[in-house]
Amino acid sequence: MDYDIKKGWFKNIEGDALAQLMESIFGNVKKDGDKLVSSYGVMETIEVTVLGKDKMDITTKNVPDAEKRSDDEILDSKRKLNVFAEKATGFDAKARMKRAQKKAKEGTL
Known about the structure:
single chain; alpha+beta; five-stranded antiparallel beta sheet; 5 strands; globular
């Protein structure tokens, strides 16, 4: 899913800073072309691609047996992803949701 990056925030994640952020939150990261790939908890893959100074794509794929995992592990994985998205984009979950709703109303989502 595409996420907007807060105006002026890109300086916080350019260069190796985004990879270092992923490693600090998820514990691992590898570079695959222009993507950064990680994994954590029920998320088998977390792929992050910077699309520009104002946008990034974060795509996750869950492990095949995610529904059999404990609620705590699922919630922990979701929380870690939200922490990463906030630190990477500069927008908290509420602001990201409002922006997505606005785009949906405008038909640009």
